[in-house]
Amino acid sequence: MISVTDALTHLFALTNELPSETVPLGRANGRVLATAVSAKRDQPPFSASAMDGYGVASEGAAPGAKYTVIGEAAAGHAFDGIVGSREAVRIFTGAPVPKGVDRVIIQEDVVRDGDVITIADRLDKGFHIRPAGGDFQVGQTINAPRELRPSDVALMASMNIANVPVIRRPKVAILSTGDELVMPGEAPGPDQIIASNSFGLQAMLRDAGCEARLLPIARDTRASLEAAFDLVDDADLLITIGGASVGDHDLVGDVAQNLGMQRSFYKIAMRPGKPLMAGTLANGAMMIGLPGNPVSALVCGHVFVLPVVRAMLGLGQAPTPRLTAKLAAPAPQNGPREHYMRAHVAHGELTTFDNQDSSLLSILSDANALLVCPPNCPELAVGTDVQYLPI
Ligand code: AMP
Ligand code: MG
Q: Would you say the CB of residue 242 lies under 6 angstroms from ligand 1?
């Protein structure tokens, strides 16, 4: 058995960063920027009015000053003339500031009578002009790698970047194994259950930016498993679920190795999730064999699969980040394996669930945290600072 940290090191050694592809801007949200992109223009491209009002020369602008309104500038409609010292231009937000204007008097500060405006007693101090290039200038970059968010998409649009280089989504194939499993919606026999882990993992992987597809459930026979491995195709990562313990029906490791899988490790000093396996398939794809118990499979997803996916996406080789909370109830003494306990965190206080049986998905669903109990940790008292993974 190896430690969680050593297992992650081995997993990262098997992980290849994926190549990039170009997607239209409208599809870039949530993707990882592969190479830096740079602004193709200044924003704003001209100095622009920040308010609705009157553009004037700032010199002499004071309560009582009068101006003749000689034209109008609106967004998308510049005023082409030159504005003299006693002249004003009606101007709207986003309009280019005409020559001769260096201040916008907001409309609330002006009394208008025909073509003449008079600055009222109250005069706002601001000049209300956005300088050209004040947001960004040609060549300003957005650096990679970066997980693109809606604000980044807006920024790139504004920079006139219509196509975005992003890391290709990891292609993941998910294989449930077991004679007892049927798909949701099917009618299970009296000794059957519904495959659940595969759906949880698919959701997790899609959230993390993967293309995740489910292979047909493999039965606990060599022939069925071999047929399933044949469907891995061009996946970057195969995730198998179950069949990885030492029971008579646990054939996954054996079949995989017969098909040329180079095993990197098997078994981790961790609860839940001991029978974890990883290696490289004959076609070069990475394989992670997860335990079958639903909670074990999903906890291993958080602890091992998500960091691998992030590394494939070029986001670095790091464990899933941990947060800190205070124990609201004592946490039990731990044995020699790192224990990930389902817990609930609210207002910075963490409480573990009493029943930690690794088959109980309902408790995983109630949990929003996994308390990390290091190996051989003594019982921890109320108020102790502890680390957890948000889930
Ligand atoms: P195994 O590792 O194959 O011995 O499976 C351990 C336990 O997890 C057994 O109770 C299986 O029925 C259950 N199990 C295995 N795979 C799945 C799955 N995809 N969905 C739900 N339960 C599963
Ligand atoms: Mg099984």
A: yes
Among all bound ligands, the one having the nearest atom to the CA of 176 is 1
pLDDT value of residue 245? 82
Residues 372-390 have a mean pLDDT of: 97
Whether 197 lines ligand 1, by a CB cut-off of 6 Å, is yes
Class of residue 170 by CB neighbours under 10 A (exposed 0-12, middle 13-18, buried 19+): buried
Mutate to test the pocket of ligand 1, among 177, 181, 276 (most ligand atoms within 8 A of CB): 181
Q: Could you give the residue ranges of the DSSP H alpha helices within the chain?
A: 4-14, 150-158, 197-207, 222-229, 252-258, 294-300, 306-312, 361-366
Q: How far apart are CA 16 and CA 314, in angstroms?
A: 9
Query: Is 94 strand, coil or helix?
Result: coil
What gap in Å lies between CA 43 and CA 157, rounded to an integer? 11
Ligand 1 binding pocket includes 200 (Cβ within 6 Å)? no
Q: Which ligand is nearest to the CA of 292?
A: 1
Q: What is the pTM of this model?
A: 0.93
Rounded Cα distance between 353 and 337, Å, is 18
At residue 198, the 3 state secondary structure works out as helix
Please state, in angstroms and rounded to a whole number, the distance separating the CA atoms of residues 268 and 336: 11
Tokens of 184: 């949701």
- Output helix, strand, coil percentages for the chain, rounded to the nearest 5: 20, 35, 50
Pocket test for ligand 1, best of 215, 241, 358 (most atoms within 8 A of CB): 241
Check pocket membership of 273 for ligand 1, CB cut-off 6 A: no
Percent of the chain having pLDDT more than 70?
100
Instruction: Round the CA-based radius of gyration of the chain to a whole number and report it.
Output: 31
Structure-token pair, residue 370: 């996994």
294 close to ligand 1 (CB < 6 Angstrom): yes
- Looking at residue 173, its pLDDT comes to 98
- Name residues whose C-beta falls within 8 Å of residue 227's C-beta, 6 or more positions apart in sequence: 218
